[in-house]
Design a protein that fits this description.
Number of strands: 11
Number of domains: 3
Helix content: 25-40%
CATH superfamily of the largest domain: Nucleic acid-binding proteins
CATH architecture of the largest domain: Beta Barrel
Strand order of the largest sheet: 1-2-3-5-4
Shape: elongated
Radius of gyration: 26 Å
CATH class of the largest domain: Mainly Beta
């Protein structure tokens, strides 16, 4: 009877120690939300990847994976910590993402010294994971070219980030407080002729040359969509010819109304 009680007490102590260890690990990784971690792919669970992060197990659900990437067992990959959850039996589980826009932001912070040192600020990021990202950067120091510093001579600085993202295109643009100027930058590589903004509605009418319209909109509307996400503005793009036609119709309607009066 005494041995039984001792055995039960031992089990309780062991259980309490394990719970305390799990809580310590949970708190440690909970503080690492927003960081980039490296793990090895252990196995798959349905469409999710299970990663060995050393002290803990990480999971990368399908929605957090880059659609264009192929993964294999024992592959080392980097990811962005989006959450830490209590998994089965109370074990902490780290949710890791490669598709999150902030993964791109953290890679820039790690690779570009001026960003890490606070000389250049990342204002916003928009992303179609595996295809294209746009990142807006700014510096209060007039002697620093924020875009040039991020890209580097012949693109050498940004190359490591693109390689990590397996060739994902990245547009680095300069942030401006003036919304019209910022929107024009966000639509690069297209050249913008004019931007008319309505601040209350956060709506912008953008005019581009006829031969720039398809570039401004992008394939399946990607460039315009990413620019809208980057700026937080609704953007309507018209070619110069389309805009002139709209003005002509408005003038015609105004003239007709005046004649009726």
């Amino acid at each position: 009877m005494v041995e039984l009680r001792l055995g039960t007490a031992k089990q309780i102590i062991v259980q309490k120690v394990r719970e305390a260890e799990r809580d310590i690990l949970y708190k440690e990784f909970d503080q690492r939300k927003g960081e980039v971690v490296t793990g090895m792919i252990q196995k798959t669970e349905g469409t999710a990847l299970v990663l060995d992060l050393g002290k803990l197990e990480g999971i990368m659900p399908r929605k957090e994976q880059i659609p264009t990437e192929t993964y294999h067992l024992n592959q080392k990959i980097k990811g962005y910590v989006v959450d830490v959850q209590k998994g089965t039996r109370g074990n902490p589980q780290v949710v890791v993402s490669r598709s999150h826009p902030d993964f791109v932001k953290k890679l820039f912070e790690l690779e570009i010294p001026e960003i890490y040192e606070g000389l250049i600020e990342i204002k916003s990021v928009s992303r179609d994971a595996g295809s294209r990202s746009k990142i807006a950067v700014y510096s209060t120091n007039k002697d620093i070219d924020p875009v040039g510093s991020c890209v580097g001579q012949r693109g050498i600085r940004i190359k490591n980030i693109i390689d990590e993202l397996n060739g994902e295109k990245i547009d680095v643009v300069e942030w401006f407080e003036n919304p019209g100027m910022f929107i024009a930058q966000a639509l690069l590589p297209a050249e913008v002729l004019a931007v008319d903004t309505k601040d209350e509605e956060k709506f912008a009418q953008v005019i581009v040359a006829d031969n720039q319209l398809s570039l401004a909109i992008g394939k399946a509307g990607q460039n315009a969509r990413l620019a809208a996400k980057l700026t937080g503005w609704k953007i309507d793009i018209k070619s110069e010819t389309q805009y002139r036609e709209i003005l002509a119709k408005q003038e015609e309607t105004t003239s007709e109304n005046n004649n009726e009066v």
